[in-house]
Amino acid sequence: MLKLAASTQFDLPTLGKSMHELLCALFPLPRSITGDGLRATISAINDILPLNVSEVPSGERVFDWIVPPEWAIDEAYLEDEAGRRIVDWRESNLHVIGYSEAVDAWFSLDELRPHLHSLPDRPEWVPYRTSYYKRDWGFCIAHRVLGTLPEGRYHAVIRSRLFPGSLTLAETLIPGESSEEILIFAHDCHPSLSNDNLSGVVVAAHLAAYLREQPTRFSYRFVFAPATIGSIAWLARNESVLPRVRAGLVLSLLGAPGPFHYKTSRAGDREIDAAAKHVLATDYPGSCLLPFMPWGYDERQFCSPGIDLPMGRLTRVPNGEFAEYHTSADDTSFVTAEALGEAWLACLRIFEAVERNQYYVNLLPKGEPQLGRRGLYRSIGGYQDVPERQLALLWVLNQSDGNSSMLDIAHKSGLPFRLIGDAADDLEAVGLLALAASARCQMKP
Ligand code: ZN
What we know:
The protein is of the alpha/beta class and 445 residues long. Helix content is 30%, strand content 22%. A hairpin with a 4-residue loop joins strand 4 (70-80) and strand 5. The radius of gyration is 25 Å and the shape is elongated.
């Protein structure tokens, strides 16, 4: 079972730095929902975490969707009559609309305008745009640069190909004591953008690398796939896995400073919801709780009515609610090692709460058992949190009638989950508490 040390025992600065380094290495790769940039990303993650890779062929039906053709791009630029390059895909892969079809032609500025995308409110930033399912082509450009373009002829060149290929899925399963699974999903299809969602990718990869070395009660499955079409393809191919999913998290937007935001599962009252709410409320003051809504990231698929997994979503400031979202300003300097490290530990704390959320029965429920005789009532010693530790023992004894989980007791008592879990361990060790037989592997309905 996953039992984490105190936060001070983790070297979060070093870990955060390692995540940020991986993020910087992945940043320039020209990712999309298919293609070699995506494969190169998976290959780089594979260096720290062995992944099982599968390819879903273009044209395969996945629920109501069809896997699109693969997209490859070799070169793209816009140049003026003097041959000066206005934008060049080699400088930033955001400069080309994802899935642009090929073009090699001269245009007047007016003819070109419908194919040029900029942000008038943020004239220095380049927007991120895609057109996966409607054939189109275009460039994304800083509005300031667009404003300097004189009338004249412009040469638009995009050397891209759309062809029958495949979409890349990657995952790893880390076995635990139980075959019940915790499912973690991170989308990996955005090109040079950091917070959305390389932050989710690197946090997930480092969580998996850590959990591989730990004894865990549950098995952990990490899935890296493109947003929407990737999660749908994974779900369509893995329906047999879904009954084993006990809890899960969609991870995104974890690297920029800002409070955590937890979005609940579709039902809103699953074990993962209780765990995340409790951990964030006690360990990360200022965190926000969002009710489920069918908009956002891949929780839309995992929480669709025919799938309805007990999965929530953890981000910091959500998509669309910060100015840098889907722009060139979401670069490697926008995310910090500190924010990544803190998010990594927050996820582990949530997993720990799910793992330790058991049901117990008090074996001496008539009156309070005499704790001092059993060495549990510490009246002396250097424990700063002695009163809370003692209170936790009393709460666990009082509420453990087989119907209250550890999270229920933590919630009712207002004490940190860790104290409640440790109190249960202490009480079990001296024979005052036992796992409730009927609830040993059960969740509340
Ligand atoms: Zn996005």
